[in-house]
Amino acid sequence: MPVVNITRRLPVKTISADIDSLNGLGTVNNYLPVRSDAAPEALRANFTAMQAMQQKETELQAMLKAAADAARQAEWDFHNGVLGMKEAVRAQFGPDSNEAQAIGYKKKSEYKRPRRMPKAEAM
Questions:
Q1: Among 3, 23, 47, 110, fewest CB within 10 Å belongs to which?
Q2: How far is CA 39 from the centre of its chain?
Q3: Cα separations (Å) of 3 from 7, 11, 21, 100?
Q4: What is the mean pLDDT of the chain?
Q5: By the 8 A CB rule, do 120 and 108 touch?
Q6: DSSP 8-state secondary structure symbol assigned to residue 36
Q7: For the purposes of burial, counting CB atoms within 10 Å of the CB of 41, is it exposed (0-12), middle (13-18) or buried (19 or more)?
Q8: What CA–CA distance (Å, rounded) separates 108 from 94?
Q9: 67-94 average pLDDT score
Q10: DSSP per-residue codes, 56-117
Q11: How many CA atoms, within 13 angstroms, populate the side-chain half-sphere of residue 30?
Q12: How many CA atoms lie within 13 A of 67 on its CB side?
């Protein structure tokens, strides 16, 4: 018999078959389980608990997506604000200022000037 890994989720197909089995149990007369966890009352309680936990999971997933969207929007708002600040600093103080260098730009005077390449002599 294979080892059962209870850390993995059950496939939807399996859960659906289990629900069908539970619904079909109502038609079985004189059912007397030996195990207490297989009693109809325990099965209904487990089914209700499963539905409640699935609903809670769905709600939390929706909240997580909403929080992720809000965080993404806040990141973009911050980024756009920083870009605006950088543009304003360059406009106010110039591209070769210490202030522009302080916010992360390289001074214009620190860039190397392009050099002319000598033309190759024709043979």
A1: 3
A2: 40
A3: 12, 16, 24, 64
A4: 92
A5: no
A6: G
A7: exposed
A8: 9
A9: 95
A10: HHHHHHHHHHHHHHHHHHHHHHHHHHHHHHHHHHHHHH-TTSHHHHHTTPPPGGGSPPP-PP
A11: 0
A12: 6
Nearest to 20 by CA among 43, 54, 53: 43
pLDDT in tens, 39-54: 999 999 999 999 999 9
Which stretch of DSSP H or E encloses residue 14? helix 12-25
Q: Does residue 123 surpass a pLDDT of 70? A: no
Q: How many CA atoms lie within 13 A of 62 on its CB side?
A: 6
Joined tokens for residue 14: 């399996």
DSSP 8-state code for residue 6:
T
Q: ∠ CA(115), CA(119), CA(123), 5° rounding?
A: 160
Q: Tokens 């050099």 identify what position? A: 115
Q: Is residue 90's pLDDT more than 70?
A: yes
Tokens for 117, please give them.
């390449």
Q: Kindly tell me if the per-residue pLDDT of 121 is higher than 80.
A: no
Q: What's the CA gap between 2 and 69, in Å, rounded?
A: 42
Q: Please give the structure tokens belonging to residue 64.
A: 């997580």
